[in-house]
Amino acid sequence: MRTLPVPAQGLLALLCLFSFESVQAGKVLVLPVDGSHWLSMKILVEELSNRGHEMVVLVPETSILIKKSGKYSTKTYPVSFTHDDLAENLKEIQNSALEKAPKLTDIVVNFRNLLQFLTMQSKTCEGLLYNEPLMKSLREMGFDAMLTDPFLPCGTIIADSFSIPAVYFLRLIPCRLDEAAAQCPSPPSFMPRYSSGFTDKMTFPQRLVNTLLTVVEGFLCRSMYESADELASKYLQKETTYAELLGHGAVWLLRYDFAFEFPRPQMPNMVQIGGINCVKRAPLTKELEEFVNGSGEHGFVVFTLGSMVSQLPEAKAREFFEAFRQIPQRVLWRYTGPVPENAPKNVKLMKWLPQNDLLGHPKVRAFVTHGGSHGIYEGICNGVPMVMLPLFGDQGDNAQRLVSRGVAESLTIYDVTSEKLLVALKKVINDKSYKEKMMKLSAIHRDRPIEPLDLAVFWTEFVMRHKGAEHLRPAAHDLNWIQYHSLDVIGFLLLILLTVIFVTVKSCMFCFRKCFKKSQKKKKA
Amino acid sequence: MRTLPVPAQGLLALLCLFSFESVQAGKVLVLPVDGSHWLSMKILVEELSNRGHEMVVLVPETSILIKKSGKYSTKTYPVSFTHDDLAENLKEIQNSALEKAPKLTDIVVNFRNLLQFLTMQSKTCEGLLYNEPLMKSLREMGFDAMLTDPFLPCGTIIADSFSIPAVYFLRLIPCRLDEAAAQCPSPPSFMPRYSSGFTDKMTFPQRLVNTLLTVVEGFLCRSMYESADELASKYLQKETTYAELLGHGAVWLLRYDFAFEFPRPQMPNMVQIGGINCVKRAPLTKELEEFVNGSGEHGFVVFTLGSMVSQLPEAKAREFFEAFRQIPQRVLWRYTGPVPENAPKNVKLMKWLPQNDLLGHPKVRAFVTHGGSHGIYEGICNGVPMVMLPLFGDQGDNAQRLVSRGVAESLTIYDVTSEKLLVALKKVINDKSYKEKMMKLSAIHRDRPIEPLDLAVFWTEFVMRHKGAEHLRPAAHDLNWIQYHSLDVIGFLLLILLTVIFVTVKSCMFCFRKCFKKSQKKKKA
Asked: Is A301 part of any domain?
C-alpha cells in the first residue's frame, strides 16, 4: 500500500460537512453524578454550550467536582449531607480498598456501603423532586432534552415528569441494569459479569460462576434501586420501576469502545464514545518539561490514583518510594501524603498533574494507575503501557481487560510491595511486547470515522431535533421475560408434542390390547 | 430552538477532517453478485477507485449488469451458462411472480428454483477456483482485501485461500446465514423471519409461526449452501462450512438502517450503509423536465419494476394503463412491452428512466415500485410515498416494513386490477398522512453523522490498514450452540438441584420410616 497525497485524505472528510442536518440551538437540562463521572460529561456539556445550546446543570449544594462555570449555567439544590460527610465516606471506601483483601465479608460490606450511598442519593433526589419552586422554574424553561448519568435515577425521573427525551452518558451500571433496560442481549457464555475477573473466553467452571452471577445481578439490581422504584412510582403517580423508566431513554452514550471492551451485541440506540476525554496534548510547563527531559534515554513514569485518592498510608507509600528508587526512569506522582526523609531524587511529587499532556509526551515509558476509565483511555489514546492498581468500582474489570490484551500488568494494592512493583514496572517498560501491543491498540482506538465528542454532540442534537429516537426503540420493550425468550411458544410446542406422543402411545396400546385379546380368545376357542 | 449561523454548523463537521487515519492506497479484489446487487456495490468500488485504490472486479463472461469501466479493472472468467439461459431463468422467475398466487406449491417451486440457481452458481465458482492461471495471477497481485456479496460463496472462499480479510456488502441472506455467521442475536419473539409477512409486534400465533420458521431456516440454509460447504472443504482442503468461513469476515456492510428496518441487536462489525445508492439529484433532460412540469398542481407518478423487469403481459399492462387514465397526475413508466392503441396521454413510456432524479423532483407525488431495496431507499431519501408491487426475494418484506410505517400501500401483482391500483394511488397521493410520515422517515434517514458511502469507504480502508478487524470479533465464535446458550451450565445446575432434592427426600423418608417403625414397635410393646 502506498501513501496518498494529503489533499485526497481530506476529500472524504469534507463530505462530512454536508452530513449534519441544520443545527438548532436548544435547551438541555443536565443532571450529572458527582466525582469522576462528571469529568467527561463536562466535556460534552461545554461542547454543546459552544455550539449555542443553553445548558443548565443541576448542582448539589455539597459537591466534589461539579463547579460553576462560564460555559454553562447552574442551578443549585440543597442536600442533606455536608462536605465532611462526603470526605468521611470517601475515606472509608479508600481505606477498605487500600488495607483489606477482597474477601467475601468485604464484598458484603462494600455492597452495604453502596446501598447506603444509593439510599442517601435517593433521599437527595426526593429533596430535589419535591423542591416545588425549583422544579416549577425548570419545567417552565421548556427543555428539549435531559442529559444524565443513569447510575443515579433522578435525571430519568425528571425527564419522564417533564416529558422530554433522555440522553444517558455512562460507563456502565454495576448490576447491568443499563443493558437490561436497553433490551441488549448479553449472553453469560461469553460476556463476563461485573467484578467476575473473567475474560470473554471462559472455562466451564467460569461460565458456571458467570451464569450464577447473572442471577445474583438481578437481585442486586432490585435491592440497589428499590428506593428509586418507590420514589419514581410515588412522584410520577404511576406504578413503575426505574428499569422501566430507563428503557424509555432515547440514546445511550457509552464511554467505551471495542479497542478496550470485549466485542458484544449492541442495540441501535447505543453509541460508543470511549476516549471522549482524550483531548489533544497541550505543552507542559517549563518546569515539568525540564524534569521529564532530564530523564534522558530512560524516560519517565506517570503515577496517579485518580481524582479521588491523592494520599496513601505511610507504610504503603514507602513501598512505592522504594520501588521508584530502583528504576532508572524519573517518576511524576500525584501525591499529597507524608514524604519520607530519604525520598528518592528521581521522584517528583505534585498536588495535581496534567495527566493527558504527560501521557502524550514522547519520553513517557509507563503509566501507574488505579484503572479508572478516564485514565485508561488517556493511556490507550497515547499508547502508554500500564501498571494497574485497581481500587474499587469498575477498575478491577478495566485492569483485567487491558491485562488480557497484553498491554498492562495488574497488582492488588492491599498487598503491594516494592518488589512486586519493581517486577511489574520493569516488565511493562523493558519487555517491548507491551509497548508494541499498546501501539496497535492505540492505532485501532484512534482510527474511527468520527470523533467520540462529535458523535456525542450529534446524537444529543439528533434527540433534540426529532424529540427522541423512537425509530431505534426495539419492540422487545413490549414483551415480558417469558415472551422475549419465546418460553410460552416453546411450552406450547412441547405440550402439542407430548399430546401427540400420549395419543399415539394410547392408540397403539389400545390396538395392541384389542389384537392381543382377539388372539387370546382365538386361542381359548 | 433557534437556528445557528451556518459557520457554526461546519465546526463539528470540520473536525471530521482530522479523524481519518493517514490513507494508503491498496489493492482490493471484488467479487460481486450480478444483477441489482451490483448496482450499489459499484458505487463503493468506484469511490474506492477514486481514492486511489486498485480495484479488480471479477466478471463472469455472461453477465447482466457488471460491465467493464474506466474506473476499475476487470478480469473475466468463463461460465457454463449463456445469455439465453440467463434470460430464460429471469423470465421464469418473472412469470411465476406475475401470474400465480404465492401458494405452498409455488413456495416449493421457488425454493427449487433458488436451489438450482445456487447449485449452478456453485459450479461457476468451481470453474473460477480451479482456473489455475487466473487464480495464480490474482494470488500474485497481493491483494489487501476482498470485497464481496456473501449471497454467493465464491468471494469468501477466495479470501480464505488468499489469507486476506473479507468485507461483505449485502442487504441480507434469505435464510439468515449472515446473522448466524456474525453471531448476531435475533430473537424470534420480535424479529420477524424472511417472508413471514409479520412486523416486529407479533401476536402469540404469529410468534409461534415465527419460531417454527426459525427452525425451518436452519434446514433451508443447510440445503441452500450444501454445495458451497462441499466446494469450500474440497478447495481449501480442510473440514469447513460456508457459515464458518463467513464468520471470519472482517466487516459486514449492511444496506439498511433503522429508518427502514425494525430495530434489532447488532454486532460490532456490522455497519449500516442503507441509502448508499441515494446520490444527489441531477437535473432532468429538457424533454423530461417539460413533461413533469406540464403536470401542473397534480404532479406526477414514477413507475418502475426494477432493473430486471421492463415488460408485463398485455392483460396485466392494460390494468395499469386503465388506472393511470383515471388519475389527474402524469405518469412516467419504465416499460418496453406492447402498448394498447388507446393508451392514455398522461402516461410517458420509457426504456429507462433516471429514477433518483425523478424522485427528487418537487412535483413527484408517488412512486409505484416492486420494492427492491435500491428503489425504496431512493423513495425514502427523497420522501416519496409508495405503492408497492413486490415480485420476489426480499421485496415482500421491504413492502411490509414501509406499509407498517404508514408510508406505503402494498398490492399483490398477480391479482392487481385497475380498481385496486386506483384506490392505492389515490390513498398515498391524497391522504396527507402518507406524505407527512414519509417526510419524517426521510428526515430521520438523512440525519446521520456520516454518509453511508463514506462509512463504507472508511471501514474497507480500516480493514486494509489493520489487516482485518480482529478486535470486533466476539468470543462467541469459539462456542458451540449448547455452550452459547449456556445449556450445559443450566443442565449441570439442574442436575445438582435434582440430586439435592433426591438426597433430601430420601433422607427424610429414611428418618420418617425410622421414626415410624420406632413408634410402631413402641405401640406393639
From this structure: yes
Q: Do B449 and A465 touch (CB under 8 A)?
A: no
How close is the nearest chain A Cα to the Cα of B365, in Å?
24
Give the Cα separation of B368 and A106 in Å (integer): 68
Give every residue of chain A whose pLDDT is below 50, as ranges. Answer: 4-22
The pLDDT of residue A102: 63
| CA separation for the pair A185, B266 (Å, rounded) | 10
Does residue A249 fall inside a structural domain? yes
Q: If you average pLDDT over residues B497-512, what whole number do you get?
A: 94
User: Are B427 and B462 within one domain?
Assistant: no
Query: How close does chain B come to A384, measured CA to CA in Å?
Result: 19
Among partner residues A267, A449, A466, which is closest to B454 by beta-carbon distance?
A: A449
Instruction: Judge: B268–A264 Cβ closer than 8 Å, yes or no.
Output: yes
Binned at pLDDT 50, 70 and 90, residue B104 comes out as: low
Residue B94 has pLDDT above 80, yes or no: no
The pLDDT of residue B16 is above 50? no
Length of chain B counted residue by residue = 525
How far is the CA of A505 from the CAs of A492, A502, A512, A517, in angstroms? 20, 5, 10, 18
From the CB of residue B239, how many other CB atoms can be counted at a distance below 10 Å?
A: 9
A329 and A463 share a domain? no
- Smallest Cβ–Cβ distance between B488 and the set A27, A204, A265 belongs to A204
User: Is the confidence at residue B126, as pLDDT, over 50?
Assistant: yes
- Would you state the cell numbers that stand for residue A201, as one nine-digit string? 473466553
**pLDDT on residue A6:** 40
Same domain, B471 and B352: no
pLDDT tens readout for residues B336-372: 988 888 899 999 999 989 999 999 999 999 999 999 9
Return the residue of B nearest to A4 by Cα.
B24
Interface test with B, best of A189, A442, A463, A465 (most B CBs within 10 A): A189
Provide the pLDDT for residue A1. 55
CA distance, residue A106 to nearest chain B CA (Å): 27
The domain that holds A308 is classified in CATH as 3.40.50.2000
- Sign for the pseudo-dihedral over CA of B217, B223, B228, B229: positive
Dihedral angle sign, alpha carbons of residues B143, B145, B149, B151: positive
Q: Give the structural domain span for A142.
A: 24-257+450-478
Give the pLDDT of residue A458.
Answer: 98
Average pLDDT of chain B? 90
Residues A173, A150 contacting (CB under 8 angstroms): yes
Please indicate whether, in this complex, the C-beta atoms of A200 and B444 are within 8 angstroms of each other: no
- Pick among A199, A463, A489 to test the B interface (most B CBs inside 10 A): A489
Asked if B326 and B410 sit in the same domain, the reply is yes
Can you give the pLDDT at residue B421? 97
Q: Are residues B251 and B302 in the same domain?
A: no
Percent of chain B whose pLDDT exceeds 70:
93
- B389-401 confidence digits (pLDDT tens): 998 888 999 999 9
Asked if the structure places residue A298 within a domain, the reply is yes
Distance CA B387, CA B411 (A): 7
pLDDT of residue B105: 66
- Under an 8 A CB cutoff, do B266 and A268 touch? yes
Residue type, B459: W
What residue of A is the nearest CA neighbor of B259? A471
Cell numbers given for B453: 458511502
For residue B269, give the chain A residue with the closest CA: A263
Residue B263 belongs to a domain = no
Cβ separation of B4 and A448 shorter than 8 Å? Answer: no
Domain count, chain A: 2
- The reported pLDDT for the residue numbered A369 is 97
Q: Which of A185, A451, A488 sits opposite B185 (nearest CB)?
A: A185
Least confident of A47-61, B95-109, B307-321, B388-402: B95-109
Q: Which three cell numbers stand for residue B323?
A: 388506472
Q: Which helix (H) or strand (E) holds B508?
A: helix B487-524
Closest approach of chain A CAs to the CA of B379, in angstroms? 18
Out of A19, A188, A263, closest to residue B449 by CB: A19
Q: In this complex, how many residue pairs, one in chain A and one in chain B, have their CB atoms less than 8 Å apart?
A: 263
Same domain, A150 and A211: yes
